[in-house]
Amino acid sequence: MALLLANPAHGAVKPAFEFAQGCLEPTFARAGRPAQIVVKVKNPGPKQMDVEAILFLPAGVTNASPKINMSRWQKGEFKTLVWNVSASSPLLGEARLELRQGSNLVGSFTFHVNWRNAIPQALGSYIPMPVRAETGRYLIGAIQCPLWNNGIRWPAIATYPDREPVLGWYDEGNPEVTDWEIKYALDHGISFFMMCWYRAKDNANQPVKPALEHWLREGLFHSRYGDQFKFAINFENGNQSFCGKTSERDLLENLLPFWIENYFSRSNYLVLDGKPVLAIYNVERFIRDLGGEKRAPAVIAKMRVACKQAGFKGIYLLGQYCWGTPPELLSQAEQVQRLGMDASWSYHWPTFTGAFGDELRPSGQQAIAAQETLWRNQPSPNLLTLSAGWDSQPWQFSLTKTQWRLTPDEYKDLCQRAKSVLDQRPCDTIENRLVLLDNWNEFGEGHYIFPTRENGFGYLDAIREVFATNAPPHVDLVPQDLGHVPYDSEYRALQRRDNKNN
Q1: Domain around 99
Q2: pLDDT tens digits, 196-240
Q3: Is the distance from CB of 433 to CB of 139 less than 8 angstroms?
């Protein structure tokens, strides 16, 4: 079971002092099934206490024993409190924990609880086959970050309870996890992932060694439903922890042949009009490595020739930009055009100075309006990116000061506006049909649409309702609906090792 810090910035009421962690388990609780309220409390001192913990729950929740006595609770000691609870019908509400010494309230803590619709369990079944939600001419893809291997990055996220995925703190190299992802995506109208692709550090100008390739090699390539789902790669050449550096010779003799052989040639790689789609994250660095803006177009032309020689009709090359002030963004988009790339795109909208004036925590409507303005003001051809939020507290980035997140209803509004913009663009072009969703699973930066504890399938349902209007009714499933446990074995093993070492 997960024990999560209910962070005041993410929907919880701030306790009298910092001492409590609490949640409802399982992450996606169903009405009519047993569940638990799990709270971890710490005696902050200054002394030992005898305390009564009293749990207050919304009407409609059954809890046979709301009180737990903690005698001789030592200063600095953690205690884990567990209540067996149930709800006969769906509800969303708040649970409140009070700690009392006699009639004196010594602390209180409030957190959200949510029971979803009851459905029959299909115990022992494998993940049902995806049922593709057709989106017509719109091609919907989600930007994806393959960061969740070995459990090593989850501890930074685990202190933010709203961000826990419905799969648990999952192991991304598990093909069964990938099949859940494919099902969630296809069921809601998303037909491909554009995954961040990393090269091992200090690997420039030599045979290619990928890094963080587990989602592809261990997950997608061994998944049961992988042949139904497309992927494309985004060369993440801006992260200093990996190798982003290249050169003309390295690109044409190492990188591009590796991509063609290992990715482009696969039947489930995203190929449009006979051309594999390749995104470049840091265009400025890409230009510099290829010899500057005067030389880079000639190198790009050679890339197109190499792809034709490999049996394709060329390559769709996408140049990314999203950092800086609005004038700087415009300049970057124009640079992408001058290079002879096929379209510009953004990893995230809008993360730049002055996006919301002096407002660091804009409203949902402010964030929606800012995105729509950017879509309409960028030079063509430009792909639409739809962003759900930004809050990088777990990663502790300098951009953490800016925090915003759309609700699922606001995200649906964003999708509707995007669809309207697409319909006004020239027909039969890549910018008229291709939409990028930011982001599938960037839990650390706080702009994810993956189903989580807080909003369930709200973002995916919004995409489906706007872009797949003729899709048949469906039911969103989680592992517990099939009797499966969370896919978090690597994270739990890491926790056990850390506890043993401490």
Answers
A1: 8-118
A2: 999 999 999 999 999 999 999 999 999 999 999 999 999 999 998
A3: yes
Residue 141's identity, in one-letter code, is: G
For residue 408, is the peptide bond before it cis, meaning its omega torsion is within 30 degrees of 0?
A: no
**Portion of the chain with pLDDT greater than 90, in percent:** 74
CATH code where residue 182 lies:
3.20.20.80
Number of domains in the chain: 2
> Parallel, antiparallel, or unpaired: how do β-strands 343-345 and 271-272 relate?
unpaired
Question: Are residues 152 and 24 located together in one domain of the fold?
Answer: no
Residue type, 177: V
Contacts with 83 (C-beta within 8 Å, 6 or more apart), sequence order? 36, 37, 55, 63, 65, 66, 68
Could you give the angle at which helices 408-423 and 364-377 cross, rounded to 10 degrees?
A: 20
Helix (H, G, I), strand (E, B) or coil at 322: coil
Are 456 and 478 in contact, with CB atoms under 8 Å apart?
Answer: no
Say if residues 406 and 386 touch (Cβ distance below 8 Å).
Answer: no
Ordered alpha helix ranges (H), 224-348: 248-250, 256-259, 283-289, 296-309, 326-338
The answer to whether residue 405 sits within a structural domain is: yes
Q: Is residue 86 part of a domain?
A: yes
Q: Who's near 456: CB < 8 A, 6+ residues apart?
A: 28, 114, 116, 166, 476
What is 233-246 written as a DSSP string?
A: EEE----TTS----
Q: What is the CATH number of the domain that holds 33?
A: 2.60.40.10
| pLDDT surpassing 50 at residue 7 | no
For residue 269, the Cα-to-chain-centroid distance in whole angstroms is 21
Q: Are residues 70 and 163 in the same domain?
A: no
DSSP 17: S
C-alpha to C-alpha distance for 11 and 94, rounded to whole angstroms: 10
| Predicted TM-score of the model (pTM) | 0.92
Q: Could you tell me if 275 and 378 lie in one domain?
A: yes
Q: Are residues 98 and 226 in the same domain?
A: no
Amino acid residing at 39: V
Query: What average pLDDT score do residues 124-153 get?
Result: 95
